[in-house]
Amino acid sequence: MEHDLCEAAIKGDTDSLIAIIQKDPLILHKFADGCFNGAASPLHVAASNNRTRFVEELLHRQPELTEVLDSQLRSALHLASAKGHDEIVKVLVKANPEMCLVRDREGKNPLHMAAVKGKINALKELVGACPEAARDRVDRNETILHLCVKHNQLESLEKLLDIIQGQDFVNAKDNDGNTILHLAILYKRFKIVDVLGVGTYEEKETIDVNATNASGYTAMDILIHGSGNNWIHGSGNKEESDRVHDFLLKADAKRAKDLVGGDWLTNKRESLMVVASLIATMAFQAGVTPPGGVWQEDSHKNDTIVYRAGEAVMAYNYQGSYPYFLRFNTIGFVAALSTILLLMSGLKFRNKAMMWVLIVTMWLAITSMAITYVFSNVVVTPKKDRSSLTRTITIGVIVWSSVMALLLAKLTFGLVAFFAKDKSRKMKANKRIKNEAPSSRGGKGRGANPPLPLTS
């Protein structure tokens, strides 16, 4: 009788279904209860063969059949989604929308199946019914976007990018640390690079072109090192590679070796925050409690106040040095606070200009505190020792500041040279891009339709 039911499901013969149920009223219950040891249920068979009326009849009599899984842990919704049977997908989703989240042995849910097979209508139906299913990852921690790139499903990827919103999702990494941009270049899916919008305004809001994978490679590294190598998958030619290279340049993409400063800062951000906070604390303490202390009580002379309690002793005993002490201490305090603000701002310091700003700010803070230290020692050192010790300290600080100034000059020169070279490369890239025919880009690009938020 199970065989007869399977034959009826293949043909979509609802009359035979009714006759079988009349002979064995519990047969559908047996399938729903898993009595047939992982065998495909009649719902699986009917869904796979696009028998919509038969599916509706089954669900009317036994809705729990939607939860039955075959030996590969696939539901009937998995099979209908993979084959693009849109009407059956609608019926199954309506009957049990939670089945959109069920994963098979490979970790794929029905939405993944529709995406990798390029079944766009089924994909839209599933996303609309259960948006959170798009966030599920498969076994190698790959997102649905990774699957679209690996299976070269350009239309599926484009539809998902139009629907799904969020930089964290678009820039998600798999177990190898690869983003979808890494994979698109690794597999030479250059039309997918176009769909991602690399080199356009929209790309700057989504794609991180300088993300590094577990091997420390950026997309630019993969493009440059992979050209002509047999470990690169897919197809492509030098003209396409050059075109993508130009678009990556336009998007300010870098090689990993040019991002060392930014990666170092990312790893040392917390330590820098502690150092800047310590400098700010020292400067604040020196400002409210200057070396030599403060007067403890007012002093009068001929009914005139000479000094008040709480005023700095140094301001009266070292009138020439105190203004410089206060100025440098203030510079160090403000520079330290600015460093803290920059580190808390969330700015990406892989940008060489931002790195230079941070380095200059820290240089000001440290140098100012060093000079403040010299003035402080002048105040607290006895006169008999002051001449030799102060000279030694001053020379040491001057030498140290000179070295710091040379390093700063070198960094500044390097920054100027980098921008000059970068501007030249981008001008050449833009010139080549303008000379291309508009039809040379394979995808429609991003930004035509505003993305909808991914919410349940």
Question: Which strand-content bin applies to the residues?
Answer: under 5%
How many extended strands? Answer: 2
Task: Determine the number of helices (DSSP H or I, runs of at least 4 residues).
Answer: 21
- Strands of the widest sheet, in order across it, are 1-2
- Unreliable spans are 201-205, 228-235, 437-456
Which range best describes the helical content: under 10%, 10-25%, 25-40%, 40-55%, 55-70% or over 70%? Answer: 55-70%
* Radius of gyration over all CA atoms, rounded: 35 Å
Mean pLDDT: 82
Structural class: mainly alpha
Distance between the termini: 42 Å
User: What overall geometry do the principal axes of the alpha carbons give?
Assistant: elongated
The secondary-structure element order is HHHHHHHHHHHHHHHHHEEHHHH
The main sheet comes to: 2 strands, antiparallel
